[in-house]
Design a protein that fits this description.
The protein is α+β, with helices and mostly antiparallel strands and 345 residues long. It has five helices and 21 strands. The protein is elongated and about 90 Å long. It starts with a helix and ends in a 7-residue tail after the last strand. The N terminus is likely disordered.
């Protein structure tokens, strides 16, 4: 019965926001209800330190989000390529005693069939009271298993075909096991946890602009500073930090009857700021970042789309690191454009 066997091997991971002790307790209850990861295995919890750092353990991975973006306007980065963070991964899940407590009740129930149960008992040497389940290696390694993030279909079921496997402390996981946690996999998982500020650009004129009048656009550099998330697996002492740094702003006016500054609509970051604030006396100048509408919006508005591109880099245990695909996050704001009224005398 492969479906039953698969369910016995899968640890369902829910992405949760911990705002109180009650939320943390609810997370424990939810995982136990699924029968996947309970108190006896690597589980999910939130701990707050004196320095405000919040470590959230999800799927065997601890996420430190203390340097992440915050506030109601923050959002999730979307890769600018077809790449997505891992939908599933392998990480330490059980000690020998914990795995025994997990599997033996299933075998005793007989729901997976005598042949399967017998093969599994043989695989884990379950009849040897001293060495079964690698008890003689207690403290020197872990049984690894699958963790799944079902918020990333399709692909979340791609890890189902492998059983638990043993990894000695200090050894690398088997090379043929895809997405077994390494610093790079942790960096990719941290990427998924990054939250960046909203993209509400400042416009001048602010409320209503005029046809053929350049509208200056800029973003406050204080809002758009690098953010990062660190992911670690404490049982095996590896970690990685993914850092997002803003590099450019793309403006899409919401109508073809407009021109952008620069012509590409992409404003690069300069001295920690994107664009330049309008100042008195610059009305006749061309803004380094902005838009000029060529036609009135009439009784409606134009949906100006402002999207910031973030460069993602990572560093990890052992001095490794590199780049991950750029991410983007944007928002739409409505712009009123009116005709310039002539005064006849």
């Amino acid at each position: 019965m492969p479906a039953v066997r698969n369910l016995a091997r899968v640890a369902t991971v829910l992405t949760l926001v911990f705002t109180s002790a009650f939320a943390s307790q609810a997370a424990f209850a939810d995982l136990d209800d699924h029968g996947d990861v309970g108190d006896e295995g690597t589980h999910q919890e939130a701990n707050s330190g004196d320095d405000g750092t919040v470590g959230v353990t999800v799927g065997g991975v601890v996420f430190d989000r203390s340097k992440n973006g915050s506030g109601n306007s923050t959002g999730v980065l979307v890769s600018t390529t077809s790449w997505t963070p891992p939908a599933c991964w392998y990480a330490p899940m059980y000690t020998p005693d914990q795995l025994q407590k997990k599997l033996e009740p299933t075998w005793e129930a007989g729901s997976t069939g005598w042949e399967w149960d017998a093969s599994q008992r043989k695989k884990y040497n379950a009849d040897d009271e001293e060495k079964g389940f690698n008890k003689d290696k207690t403290g020197d390694g872990y049984w690894w298993g699958t963790y799944v993030n079902k918020s990333y279909p399709p692909g979340w079921d791609s890890c189902f075909d492998d059983d638990y496997f043993w990894v000695d402390t200090g050894d690398a996981p088997p090379a043929n096991v895809e997405n077994a946690v390494t610093p790079e996999i942790l960096a990719e998982l941290a990427y998924n946890e990054i939250r960046v500020p909203g993209t509400q650009v400042t416009l001048a004129p602010a409320e209503t602009t005029k046809v053929n009048l350049p509208t200056w656009s800029w973003l406050d550099g204080a809002e758009f500073k690098p953010v990062s998330v660190t992911a670690s697996v404490q049982e095996i002492g590896i970690r990685a930090t993914a850092t997002a740094e803003p590099v450019s702003l793309k403006i899409e006016p919401g109508t073809s009857d407009a021109v952008t500054y620069p012509a590409s609509g992409v404003c690069e970051i300069n001295n920690g700021r994107i664009g330049e604030p309008y100042a008195k006396g610059k009305a006749g100048e061309t803004p380094p970042c902005g838009v000029k509408y060529l036609r009135s919006s009439g009784d409606g508005t134009y949906p100006l789309q402002a999207t910031v591109t973030w460069k993602i880099t990572w560093t990890g245990t052992g001095g490794v690191g590199g780049d991950l695909p750029d991410g983007s996050f944007g928002a739409t704001q409505e712009v009123v454009v009116q005709e310039i009224q002539a005064v006849n005398r």
